[in-house]
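Comment thread on ticket #2218

A.B. wrote:
> Attaching the input chain for the structure job we discussed in standup.
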Amino acid sequence: MGPDEIHLWVLRKLVEEVAKPLSIIFEKLWQSSEVPIDWKRGNITHISNKGEKEDPGNYRLVSLTSVPGKIMEHILLETMLRDMENKEVLDYSQNGFTKGKSCLTNLVAFYDRVTVLVDKGSATDVIYLHLCKAFDIAPHNILLSRLEKHGFTLSDRWTTRSIRHCGIECTLSKFADDTKLCGVVDMLEGRNAIQRDLDRLERWAHVNHMKFNKAKCKLLQMALGNPKQKYRLGRECIESSPEEKDLGVLGDKKLNVRRQCVPAAQKTNCILGCIKRGVTSRLRKVILSLYSALVRPHLEYCVQLRGSQYKKDVELLE
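C.D. wrote:
> Ran it. Output below, let me know if you need it in another format.
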């Protein structure tokens, strides 16, 4: 619950009664371009992010805000994304938070190009870039100015992001705070192009008050005869890695599907067992809701990148 102490299930059970008054509130807020003070407050709690739960450093803070406020944000987000799609604001390389795209489309589209280059025998370098706390430190005034530049002005500061290429020459793929840069490096010209793009991205980050987490930025170099070029991001050299994790799937020459499928199947079986033991109802509506919320996301996370050689893994997931 947020600071209003209204549980989500209360709103769910009383949906017929609260829908009309909430719609009136939303419309008034849209017209006045104001945000209620109560919606700006939040209860801060921590959730486990990675590693051992006994280590305080493995937790991250989240803010629990008012659910009606989140509903209003969702309505605005849908409107803005629809307008962005119509105005072609977001580039094709942006996969995160875009309708019809996901970490799966990001993976398939990018590695479709990479594997074609490697199959041709072309020396290929892939650089994995990670923005540091992108969602926490993104300046709101810059985001607002970008939106206004693309015509998102309502009398209306309410609906007032686009990450620009800044002249990128090589293949770029973006998902949330993770970005991949890829290029053919058989010739010196290709290696220089990648370095120029890295310099442009570093300047973009500086202008927009963002920064890359350079400890997480890695270089993956593929194909025999790769010249093993060294690249820098700012003043620091990017560390080379024999294999790099890409949104839950290994990004080496051979994608290790089994290492992805087995843990996913084990986790979902465990969750299904908890549902069977802990939920007495067997109504279709209840079971489907639980499956959609708790089970299906684990099966869909980057595991559809399959081939006929992965028959056992496909059967395991099905």
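A.B. wrote:
> Thanks. Noting for the ticket: The chain has eleven helices and eleven strands.
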